[in-house]
Structures are given as C-alpha cells and as structure tokens.
Amino acid sequence: MKYVLMFIETEEFAQQLEAMGELERRQAYEAVGRWFAEHAEVITHHTHLAPVHTATTLRLNGAEPMVTDGPFVEGKEVVSGFAEVEVADLDEALKLARSWPACPIVEIRPAS
After folding, report:
1. Cα dihedral 28, 102, 76, 4 sign
2. Is 35 exposed, middle or buried (0-12, 13-18, 19+ CB in 10 A)?
3. Sheet holding 105-111, edge to edge
4. Which among 53, 55, 79, 56 is positioned nearest to 66, based on CA atoms?
5. Distance CA 87, CA 79 (A)
C-alpha cells in the first residue's frame, strides 16, 4: 500500500532548531539524511517544502476563486515536507513514522 507521511513542524520545534548551534543543527539534518537512506527501499518520493510564508492559496468555495498569499489556515503547525512510501500496511507505515528523527508530528494518509 502507498502512504504519504507528512512531516509537521511546530513553532516550538522551529524555535529549537533556530536556537541550535551550527554543529548541532548539522547533526540534526544528518539524522534526517540517514533516516531517508535507511528507508530508501520503501520511499518512492519525498521533498522538503519551502517555508510556509511562500505559500499561495486558492479558495474555490465562493462565487469566484480567490487567491491569497500564505497558507490555507492560520496555525502553529505546518507541513514542512512529505515522503510517499510503499509498505505492506498501516502498521509498517506507523513503524516507519515512529523512527522519524525531526518534526514532532507525522500525519499518515493512504495514497491511491
């Protein structure tokens, strides 16, 4: 089955990352790189998204479509990246997500 693991960054996590020294931040990014390398056999696609302030939202629920700058919701949690994985079942996707070394929240959704 295909699942998408969405990596959700919180304001607190972003502040902690910002407060890290250069060596500690590099080690954090290296841990993420290792995670992707260790699970490469099941990851079919992944990407890191640009910062939330670069988002553009198209709202289609009115009489006319409306384009706005920024994310579609105001919040303290934002999707910072995702990985599409091909695994046997949800249990395997959960096991994979539990080993994620970065953002404190991972949302898992089946993909078709």
Report:
1. positive
2. middle
3. 43-48, 77-86, 2-10, 105-111
4. 56
5. 22
Query: pLDDT tens digits for 23-70?
Result: 999 999 999 999 999 999 999 999 999 988 888 888 888 899 888 887
**Locate tokens 């959704």: which residue?**
109
Structure tokens at 24: 């500690």
Of 107, 106, 102, the closest CA to residue 16 belongs to 102
**pTM of this prediction?**
0.85
The DSSP code sequence of 59-85 is E-SSSS-EEEES-SS--SEEEEEEEEE
